[in-house]
Amino acid sequence: MMIPLRAAALASLAWLLSGMSAAASAQQLDTRFSCSDTRSEMNEKLIYADSGEFRLNGEAIQAFRWESSLFRSTHGFDCSIDTEDGLQAEVRDESPRVTWRVSLKNAAEARFQRGYDFGRRLNCTIRLEREGDSLSIRPTCPALCGSRPNFTELSVNLKTGKCRYDE
C-alpha cells in the first residue's frame, strides 16, 4: 500500500514543482531592443532613438541599460540609465501580465555622479509591463535626464522587435 501512496506523493510534488518553475520563468525578462521614429511637431522634425537591454529574474537585476534620445533640428536631449546607477526592482505577477518597477536606490547620488548640478525632480521609476509578446516601457525618471523632462515611453514586440512610440 505504501508504494502507490509514495508514487502519488512524488507525482504531486513533481506537478507542484513544475508549476513553481513556470511561475518563476514568467517573472524573467531577457530582451534587447533598438527603436527609432521620425515625427513632425509644430513643423519641426523630431527623431526619437532608443536602445536597451533588460535582463531581470524576479527582483534580481542581471543587466539593465537604456539610452533614450530626442533630436530636434537645432539640438538634442538624451537620457540613460544602467546598473551602475544603483537600481532596485520589484515584480508583480498578475498573470498574464508581469510588471517590474525599476527605481534608483538613491536618485540624488545617481544624479550627482552624472555631473548634474541644477535642480530637477529626483524621482525615477521605470515600469516594464510584459503581457504575451508585448513589453510596454513606461518611465517617470527625470532624475537622470539632464535638461530633458523624461525618457520616451514606448512598446516593443518581443518576438519581432518592432517598436511603437506612445503619444
Architecture overview:
This protein is of the alpha+beta class. It has one domain (28-165). It is built from two helices and ten strands. The chain has helices at 2-26, 107-113; strands at 28-41, 44-57, 60-71, 76-82, 87-94, 97-104, 125-131, 134-140, 154-157, 163-165. The protein has a six-stranded antiparallel beta sheet, with no helix packed on it. A four-stranded antiparallel beta sheet has the order 1-2-3-4. Strand 3 and strand 4 form a beta hairpin.
Topology as H/E string?
HEEEEEEHEEEE
Strand line-up of the largest beta sheet: 5-6-7-8-9-10
Continuous helix count? 2
Strand content: over 45%
Mean pLDDT across residues:
84
Which of globular, elongated, flat, extended, rod-shaped describes the shape?
globular
Structural class: alpha+beta
Q: How far do the termini sit from each other?
A: 66 Å
Short structural description:
By secondary structure, this protein is of the alpha+beta class. It has two helices and ten strands.
